Amino acid sequence: MFPGELLRLVDIFTPNEIETASLVGFNNIDSWDKASDAAHIFLKKGVRHSVIKMGSRGFLLTNQKFEQIYPSIPVEAIDTIGAGDAFNGALAVALNEGKTINEAVQWGNAAGAFAATKKGTQTAMPSRSELMVMLGKI
């Protein structure tokens, strides 16, 4: 279990389904309902926005005002290592540039999808122009 006192300091929490299951004590996160239950556990512990990444299925964004499932961008995945890192990096850039959380997670979605189409991790991170192309596919 993740120490609750730390979660109340978290604005945006972006675990994948395996990390989420471990943190909330579930055997797995194999449905959107379980992802929602886990997200609400995080919110009760003080997280402002929970973004549970479910790989090729997409991700669930949950906060006190709404909950939304976002499908992943269909790509021919070559190597998914680093896709979550790309997601988080683009999410952070978008927020830093003043985007809303809904816009920012779409940037993350596009970056993660792009990264999955390349081999490696650091070399798979999209440039801004590559990210803009992927955003056009949403």
Automatic annotation (TrEMBL):
<protein>
    <recommendedName>
        <fullName>Carbohydrate kinase PfkB domain-containing protein</fullName>
    </recommendedName>
</protein>
<dbReference type="GO" id="GO:0005829">
    <property type="term" value="C:cytosol"/>
</dbReference>
<keyword id="KW-0808">Transferase</keyword>
<dbReference type="InterPro" id="IPR029056">
    <property type="entry name" value="Ribokinase-like"/>
</dbReference>
<dbReference type="InterPro" id="IPR002173">
    <property type="entry name" value="Carboh/pur_kinase_PfkB_CS"/>
</dbReference>
<dbReference type="InterPro" id="IPR011611">
    <property type="entry name" value="PfkB_dom"/>
</dbReference>
<keyword id="KW-0418">Kinase</keyword>
<dbReference type="Pfam" id="PF00294">
    <property type="entry name" value="PfkB"/>
</dbReference>
<dbReference type="GO" id="GO:0016301">
    <property type="term" value="F:kinase activity"/>
</dbReference>
<feature type="domain" description="Carbohydrate kinase PfkB">
    <location>
        <begin position="5"/>
        <end position="127"/>
    </location>
</feature>
